[in-house]
């Protein structure tokens, strides 16, 4: 990481017309001098550019996540680390099938959950017994990391690893120096033995260790291992190269600055500074002039949109009918790649060790749709590079008789991100009509509007930080969708209860007689706090209660508030259920509305 402190020469560069533009660019981080004016800070912010690694990563546009591990076999989203490794036993494992399916979807990199929060390692790590080495798969001689890496090399795809800092299995977790050493050892194994790695993904989730102590991570040591062993890799989320967009629903920001004072929360001073500025990964404004004015430093820290093709991150057979539709995936594409972000789409392999047929087919449709849409630029001239100041506009002829409904704009981010307000108009029957307007452009911006067949389009850069460098303008036609939404085929009773006996804990007489119960669903209403830890009980008489299911948390519900499906191991017979909230997502004890619960009957 380069740290630049303002020095006298730089001031001269900033305002000296004699200097060539490229000398003014500074990579990744700028610390402002104390006495700087807002104008000087803004000038510096506009000269900030990505590192080579960040730039190459941004150009990938489509990256894929693979959540696969012990949870695949237990049906959980967050394992507790006590699982028997013998459960890991894919019957038909084939990493090449994953890579081929992802390539058909247009994906350029795949990131594997080498270790999720349960601590189960998908490679035979020397650091733990909780790994594939103690599973029956390939007689304990298997290595998922190796097989996936070989497949990516064979098919020319980049490879990344997700290594969860939070480890619910490691006995040393919470005993900070000891666990940090274990984590460094795991990183060393992953980054030394498998060839090139292009992204290392550190999740932000963590909790206390088994000893009740909070683990203090040694991020500097972790970063050092990555920088020395894999200098081409970007560090994501708790890393300082790639930022979490702030939700797991595939939603980008309307205004998305890659130039931001936000820092990864890895040091106390970073946490304090983020607090002073009132910003976090979920903040709406991460790069306005007002924010830069207050900032002490500024970073090239671009956004990554992570979202799963299914409701869960891991594979659950009961979600086979809930694979996102093509239309939904294309919306996500427009909201991520089309909003100055990289898409990280999760596709979880099933218990066979294969990407399920439904997901593979959807990936193929998606890849074809995107390719066909953007293969055909309807603008007459291909030369579109343009340096724009406030108010400048350019007109582009549209090929005769063509219909368009999408415009693409790109800034040359190697010269910084600068556009603050722009609009797109079309010349239709000799009248200029507004098609779209927006704020930031950045690496790529896609705008959608109703079908039009104009003679020309006009792009106006209304406001920019100094001059903007527009290096691509395109106009396209995206075909409509003619599919039905995914159906949830579940036999389900929801909300139609015989009697709600008590609201806290929620106690319900389901149908006035005993019925067969296979599980339950929790679909949180849109409210500030959801249930996280709970106890679910059943009863035949409303007096004697039993617990059909011991797992007592809705894993990742805080970040991913999608319907939760809990399936019991065995069919139960009961008349009443009781759902007690032990802890909410914000630490309170929210009540659950009767209409948030559904009962699965088979
Ligand atoms: C979250 C984790 O807790 C989820 O299980 C998943 O891995 C997601 C990508 O990050 O924070």
What's the CATH topology label of the largest domain?
TIM Barrel
Mean pLDDT: 91
Radius of gyration, in Å, reads: 26 Å
Gap between N and C termini = 55 Å
Major sheet details: 8 strands, parallel
Shape: globular
Q: Count the helices. How many? A: 12
Fourth-tier CATH superfamily name of the largest domain: Glycosidases
Quick structural overview:
With 602 residues, the protein is α/β, with parallel strands linked by helices. It has twelve helices and 29 strands.
Describe the 3D structure:
The structure is a single chain. The chain is of the alpha/beta class and 602 residues long. It folds into 4 domains: 3-53, no CATH class; 60-251 and 302-373, Glycosidases (TIM Barrel, Alpha-Beta Barrel), CATH 3.20.20.80; 386-476, Galactose-binding domain-like (Jelly Rolls, Sandwich); 492-600, Sandwich (Jelly Rolls). The chain is 21% helix and 28% strand. It is built from 12 helices and 29 strands. The strands form 7 sheets. It has an 8-stranded parallel beta sheet. A 4-stranded antiparallel beta sheet has the order 14-21-16-19, with no helix packed on it. α5 packs across α6 (144-155) and α5 runs parallel beside α12 (357-374). Mean pLDDT is 91; it is low at 1-22 and 484-491. Bound molecules: beta-L-fucopyranose. Beta-L-fucopyranose binds at residues 77, 203, 205, 306, 313, 556, 559. Beta-L-fucopyranose is lined by residues 77, 203, 205, 306, 313, 556, 559.
